[in-house]
Amino acid sequence: MGENIQRVCASILTVMVVMLSLSEDTKGNNDFAMTPMSEKGLLPNPMSCVSDARKIPDCVEALKQGKLKDIKKECCIILLGLPEDCFGILFPMRFYYRVVLKITCKLIGIF
């Protein structure tokens, strides 16, 4: 029963974030941009981003699927160490996933 409540809450939160990000006016704010851009204005090297993510494939999938209890210390260190543009390649809403990951890592005592 507890897992169902967590899934419902996660689903509601995800829908709310999607609705807000679609309605948000993002003039000059790249946090909600649909395509990842590097800080220098060039597209990032997707191969380097993917190679870092391959070190922790279960973690990337756990975060995408909302299975936060499967996120471990190594996952926090590698994913939070990625540049913003790489995070945008791995996750569709990089701002949302980065915030969720930061909170999860704080809760498990990483930061």
From TrEMBL:
Keywords associated with the record: Signal
Cleavable signal peptide: 1-28
Domain of life the protein comes from: Eukaryota
Protein name (Swiss-Prot/TrEMBL): Transcription factor
Organism: Arabidopsis lyrata subsp. lyrata (Lyre-leaved rock-cress)
Organism placement in taxonomy: Eukaryota, Viridiplantae, Streptophyta, Embryophyta, Tracheophyta
